Amino acid sequence: MRHPILVSLCVAGAFALSACEQSSGNDVDRAFQDINVVDETNLNDVMLTASDPNEAVAYFQRSVGEKPDRIDLLRGLGQSLVRAKRNTEAVSIWTRVTEHKDATDEDRVDLADALIRNNEWDRAKTALDSIPPTHETFKRYRLEAMVADSKQNWTKADSFYEIAVGLTTQPASVMNNWGYSKLTRGDYPGAERLFTDAVRQDPALFTAKNNLVLARGAQRNYSLPVLPVSQTERAQLLYTLGLSAIKQGDTAIGEGLLRDAVETHPQHFEDAVRSLRALETKVAG
């Protein structure tokens, strides 16, 4: 009479063991899935920051092809396309991101950024207008300022630039943009102040240095300001200042600045030499 009990106990034990093995197997599978997610996340980050932009595009295109509903992969593809300067494609992908059920206001900011890069200013304004005013970020206001600039709405542009500067710890690039806005309006002293501030914030930002020289040249101030520059940079700034002087009609001063640029440059300065020869030919003719 004991055998059926023994058999049933063994069967029960077998089922229990089988259930344990299945549970253990599921746990292992989940653990491997977690590891794969972590590895994939790390790889995505690496592709976005360290790889060649076009390689990153190819990677995210493959990933999106396999998992088309993953918004993080779509974002990665959009960011990679922007880095690769493939702006038309970037607009298409960021549009797709903003249509995703999990899209955020920041995604709409990124769409506006891609549209601006693709010279689609009206669509960029529409994208920015769709974002609630409570979404206050540096990138959003920098783009708002650029759109206002494109519409020559200087009051709005100044307001947005000022807000953007207050929302970042690294304002040099936006100060440079703001200064260039002032330069295009003919506010040369205002532009000079902003370019000076930009260089103070980031002494390595050569674009701001060059723009600063342009602003001074527009005021017929042809002396180089005190700046942290290499010998090559100094030669390039003298060249910019020389061209500015010539444009203003101060030909003799411009010629002297071009000669200084040629002599200052540590190597052969082809652009300055060519400009100097053209000027000498014009004067001789």
TrEMBL record:
Signal peptide span: 1-19
PROSITE patterns: PROKAR_LIPOPROTEIN
Listed InterPro entries: TPR-like_helical_dom_sf
Entry keyword set: Signal
Record's protein name: Tetratricopeptide repeat protein
Naturally occurring in which organism (per UniProt): Roseovarius mucosus
